[in-house]
Amino acid sequence: MSDPIFWLGLSILLVAVSLTAVLVTLIPAVQALARAARSVEKLADTLSREFPPTLEAIRLTGLEISELTDDVSDGVQSAGEVVKQVDRSIGSAKKQAQNVQVTTRSLVTGVMAAWKTLTRKPPHSGTNRRSDRLSASQRSAISLRDSGFEDRYSGGHAASASNGESPRLRNGEGSGLPTDAEDFEQVRSKDS
Q1: What is the pTM of this model?
Q2: Distances (CA, A) of 89 to 12, 17, 92, 93, 115
Q3: Which residues are within 8 A (CB) of 176 and not within 5 positions of it... i.e. 6 or more apart?
């Protein structure tokens, strides 16, 4: 047993057995690596074929989304304009309704005033309506003027009387209409 060749042969044999064991265990790992490499190669081919169209589809989708966003914003703007037009139409309709209401009120007021004028009883023929509202001195002046006494001395009324116009009609007394602002105020206060 002290022969060195024996020990050398035995060590070479042990090295060969261990190398064989390493190779036997290495073969399935190498096969798995080869399968993984083929799978990666197939995946790369698939990606190189499918990825550009997918990227193009994503780009087109982004463009379509931006177009849809523009369309929606245009729609919102047009809806806002429609709402503004509707608001303006409602405002003008309100103004027209107010104008119609004012016109109707004016018409009703005019009809009522005309009705009051038409249905008002005429003044009594024996009494002068103005003389009821005048002071005593004014009444005497009117009675003198009505009697023609003043016409004889003034000369101004006589010319109109010669034309066939009475002094009462010329001054507006015979028509029942007031001749000055004070008479208008008295008529208005009496009517109301």
Answers
A1: 0.34
A2: 109, 103, 5, 6, 38
A3: 122, 123, 129
What is the DSSP annotation of 31-75?
A: HHHHHHHHHHHHHHHHHHHHHHHHHHHHHHHHHHHHHHHHHHHHH
Q: Which amino acid is at 103?
A: T
Contact 167, 147 (CB under 8 A): no
Rounded Cα gap, residues 75 and 69, in angstroms = 10
**Which residues fall within 8 angstroms of residue 70, CB to CB, at 6 or more apart?**
none
Distance CA 142, CA 130 (A): 9
Residue 163's pLDDT band (cuts 50, 70, 90):
very low
Domain ranges of the chain: 37-99, 136-192
CA 42, CA 44: separation in Å to the nearest integer? 5
When pLDDT is cut at 50, 70 and 90, the band that residue 73 belongs to is: very high
What is the predicted pLDDT for the residue at 123?
Answer: 59
List the end-to-end C-alpha distance of the chain, in Å, as a whole number: 157
